[in-house]
Amino acid sequence: MKTIRSVTVGSAFKVGAVLSALLFAVLGIFILLLPGLFGASLPRSIIGGYSDPVSALGVDLVIYLIGVVAYGVIGGIGGAIYAFLYNLVADVVGGLEIDID
Predict the structure, then answer these.
(1) C or N terminus of the chain, fewer CB within 10 Å?
(2) Coil, helix or strand at residue 99
C-alpha cells in the first residue's frame, strides 16, 4: 500500500479544468447545440427570437464556447480548492491509501 500524502494545487487545477471543460463540451452539445438545430434553443428564447436560423445557431455556438471556457475555469478553481483542502486533511488523517501492482 502506498499513501498519497499531498496533491499539488496546480496539477489539480489543470485536471479539474480539463475534465470540467470536457464534461460541458459533451453535455453542451445535447443541451445547447442539438435543440438549436431544431429551433428549440434555450438561449434564443431567453435573449429573444431570431428569425434567421443561421444567426440563431451562431448565438447558440458562441454561448456554447463561452460555457466550455467558463466551466473549465470554474472546474479548475474547484479542483485547486479541493487539492488545498485535501492537503490540510491528509496531514491530520494520513491521506488516501492506494494499492499499486
Answers:
(1) C
(2) coil
